[in-house]
Structure formats: structure tokens, C-alpha cells
Amino acid sequence: MTAPFDKPPRRPGPFAVLRSSFLTGLVVIAPVGLTVWLLWTLVGWVDGFVLPLVPDRFNPEQYIGINLRGVGVIFFLLFTVFAGWVAKGLIGRSLISFAESLVNRTPVVRSIYSGIKQIAETVFAQSERSFEKACLIEYPRKGIWAIGFISTTAKGEVAQRADAKGEIVSVFIPTTPNPTSGFLLFFPKVDVIELDMSIEDAAKLVISAGLVYPNEREDGTTEATLAHQDP
Predict the structure, then answer these.
(1) Is residue 221's pLDDT more than 70?
(2) Who's near 222: CB < 8 A, 6+ residues apart?
(3) Which position among 83, 135, 179, 220 has the lowest Cβ density within 10 Å, counted as fewest Cβ atoms?
């Protein structure tokens, strides 16, 4: 029942409707546009770096007269695959070991090379260094929970000197909204709660600042959906 002096709710004006539609359009278009722009820029950057190193007789632009964007990326991929194939052989490993021994004797170059190599191995190397599972831990104090990623079981001096009962695991605690930065902490395994959600879903949860949660499907797996509050 409406009181006699209550005013009916005002309908949004044309400007408000246009503003709402514009913001909704930005939400839809911005991710696609930025993704295409970044890929296009990256391809152009690789082309500009690689194509000057390619002999003219192998450059399609010399025959068709058109600069095809992406040709440099193809040459880069082929060269990278060939370099990786050679590096896996005995001769390639010997050459790499000899080159690294020379680099390690150069003061400034040694620091730059070792840092870049560690980053490349962490990001691109196909090894057991990837995170094992997502987990829930009490951090920075009891009663406050944080999402973490279990990397490995602690070994060596860390495991020996830590005053804890049982195994100790190394957990990476990412920051929001940039999960590439964070803290490396060591927890007793009994204090770490392993989650069923995948590493990707946990990363989405961190990046979105808690807005995207994985929902359980009928088959027992999880999928990320946008969290909302009931009115």
C-alpha cells in the first residue's frame, strides 16, 4: 500500500539509459579490443625485430610487395624450435655449457644473464616447477584466510631447521590484482587446506579480488562464475 504523499519511483532518463548502455558496452568491448590490440602490437614488435635478420630471398615481401604482418613471428617460431632441438643434443648441450662458462666469468653480463635465465626457466620451462595445487591457509594471523599455491615440499636446511612437526610445504601467497607478486611462506603440511578448485580458478579468484568464484558442476569439477549478493 502506498501512502498518499509517497512519490512514485522515477524512471531513468534518456541520458541515464545511454550512460548505462555505454558502460555495459565498454565491459563487453574493452577485453576483446585490448586483447586484439596487444596481440597485434606484439606481432608487429616481433616482426620489426626478426625480419631485418632474415635474408631478403626468404622474405615474402620481396616477391609480393606487401608487408605481411606475422611473417617474423613464423620465422621466430621456426628458429626457436630448431634452437631447442639442437640444445637437447649432446653437441648443443656442450656448446651451451661452454658459452655459459664464458658468461659466468664476465662480471656484469653474468648477473644479467643469470636473472633472465631464472625468469625464463620459471615461466617457460616444462618441468615439475609449476604449482601443484591451490590451498587455503591462515595468513597473516589466525582467523584470517588467504588463497595460496603449493609449490613443493621443503627440503634441505629449511626443512631441517624449521621447528615443526611433520612435513613443511612451500606456499606462494599471491597479491591482488597482480598474482605474479607475492610472498613465499613455509607452512606445516597439517595447517594447509588443499582446495579442489584448479590453479586457474584460484588465480581468477585472486585477480578479481573475490568477485569470480568457482561453482561446482554436476560432474564434480568447478567453473568460475561472477559472484553476486542476494538482495
Answers:
(1) no
(2) 196, 197, 198, 201, 214, 215, 216
(3) 220
